[in-house]
Design brief:
This protein has 230 residues and is mainly α. It has a single domain, classed as Four Helix Bundle (Hemerythrin (Met), subunit A). It is 72% helix and 0% strand. The protein is built from seven helices and no strands. α2 packs across α7 and α3 crosses α7. Bound molecules: fe (ii) ion (2 copies). One fe (ii) ion (FE2) binds next to α3, α4 and α5. One fe (ii) ion binds next to α3, α4 and α5.
């Protein structure tokens, strides 16, 4: 599929860093929604916090998808909240902050390339995920009505989306974000600027709506399905 070998931590894809698993273990389900984690001194704190919710919702999505694949049956009421969550929260809030705030900062102030390396790969995956969510949304009604072609297409796209998103979140947490947190620490001029840009992005009227709607959907999904996932 797209560019490869670019998940490393360095500006052009090289290097790596220790996995910040401790951060992920600090919060549970469903308290991660909008909660402080005690790791607010990280330049990527708000993005990592959003990853927690996204990963929990993705676990639930995987459960629903597994059942649908087993029965070859797509239930609209089950999948519709996920599709809306991925469009509103993942795409409308989270990815916008990554691309407009963090990636922009890395390109403008730290010499990262938009043409190759981790940023190019991550942006490519954002677009690939967005396309698959769009295809799922387009075919949801026909799949739910039992049209065989639509069911097959929907389930293929859902599976591909799951794989992309799971790998993507892991690559960000363990690659680029790790490098950023080692480089942009409190006291660095870019640290406060980044925090302000995250907040300003969240406060834009359209994004406020997407954020609150996305968080509400996330809570709803976790309440409904979290007990079904390990
Ligand atoms: Fe991302
Ligand atoms: Fe992300």
């Amino acid at each position: 599929m797209g560019p490869s070998n670019a998940t490393g931590a360095g500006p052009n894809g090289g290097g790596g860093g220790s996995v910040r698993q401790q951060f992920v273990s600090l919060t549970g389900v469903p308290g991660a929604v909008g909660e402080k984690t005690g790791e607010e001194n990280l330049a990527t704190a708000c993005l990592r916090r959003e990853h927690l919710l996204i990963a929990q919702v993705l676990d639930c999505f995987e459960h629903v998808l597994r059942q649908a694949r087993g029965k070859r049956r797509v239930v609209k009421e089950e999948f519709a909240p996920f599709i809306e969550f991925f469009a509103e929260y993942l795409d409308g809030c989270h990815r916008e902050k990554e691309e407009q705030c963090l990636f922009r900062c890395l390109v403008d102030s730290f010499g990262y390339s938009e043409e190759n390396g981790p940023i190019q790969k991550l942006v490519y995956e954002h677009e690939a995920g967005r396309r698959r969510v769009s295809i799922m949304a387009t075919h949801l009604d026909d799949a739910a009505a039992g049209q065989r072609h639509a069911v097959r297409l929907f389930l293929e796209q859902a599976r591909a989306f799951r794989d992309i998103l799971r790998g993507h979140v892991s690559a960000e947490n363990q690659g680029l974000f790790e490098a950023v947190d080692q480089q942009i620490h409190p006291g660095h001029p870019e640290f406060e600027r980044l925090q302000r840009s995250y907040e300003q992005t969240d406060q834009e009227p359209d994004n406020q709506t997407s954020l609150s709607r996305g968080q509400a959907l996330g809570r709803q999904i976790l309440e409904q399905f979290a007990s079904n996932v390990k």
